[in-house]
Amino acid sequence: MEEIKVVESNDTASAAITQQFIVVRLGDEQYGVDIRFIDNIVRMQKITRVPKVASYLKGVINLRGEVIPIMSLRLKMFLPEDEITKATRIIILKLGQYGSIGIIVDEVKEVVTLEEGQIEKVAYDSKDDKMNFIGGIGKYEGGLISLLDFNLVMQERENTP
Q1: Among positive and negative, which fits the CA dihedral 22, 158, 56, 130?
Q2: I need a labelling partner for 89 at 20 to 30 A (CA). Which of 64, 81, 111, 129 fits?
Q3: Of 103, 107, 91, 105, which is closest to residue 39 (Cα–Cα)?
Q4: Using CA atoms, how far apart are residues 114 and 134, in angstroms rounded to an integer?
Q5: Residue 78, class by beta-carbon neighbours within 10 Å (0-12 exposed, 13-18 middle, 19+ buried)?
């Protein structure tokens, strides 16, 4: 009779708390979107404009019978207007109190798993509006990824660069 050996791992790395992010590109910078909020990633499609909304709200799309508002993350972060290419995607997020919303990104790159020790919280600097949306910085393969905090992104503020 063969003996089955049970091996218990005391490896602290396997017990570390990890988070997964989808890395997206906006211009020359990389941002991380917490995978827990992502409902879908779709190709760019026709967006129906809605009058009298903030300039960063591009309009709405109909996705399988659900009307979803679409936001230009570039405009919300005071970056130049979106340049639509074959790589442009709309990421559909489910954000609890805000419901579903789509964000336009230049490109979806990869999924990364970061451990707690690879994420550094950032201090809020009221002078840098772009940093107002960043909840932390992830260190991954020698590079840095700005981790978006969608509670901050969704807050209405004066849209002055």
Answers
A1: negative
A2: 129
A3: 91
A4: 16
A5: middle
Task: Give the integer Cα–Cα distance in Å for 31 and 112.
Answer: 11
Q: For the segment 58-100, what is each residue's pLDDT rounded down to a tens digit?
A: 999 999 999 999 999 999 888 888 889 999 999 999 988 888 9
Q: How would you classify the pairing of strands 89-94 and 119-121? A: unpaired
Sign (positive or negative) of CA dihedral 157, 127, 29, 121: negative
Question: How far is the C-alpha of 14 from the C-alpha of 12, rounded, in Å?
Answer: 5
**Using CA atoms, how far apart are residues 140 and 157, in angstroms rounded to an integer?**
31
Tell the residue number behind the tokens 């772009």, with chain if given.
130
Residue type, 21: F
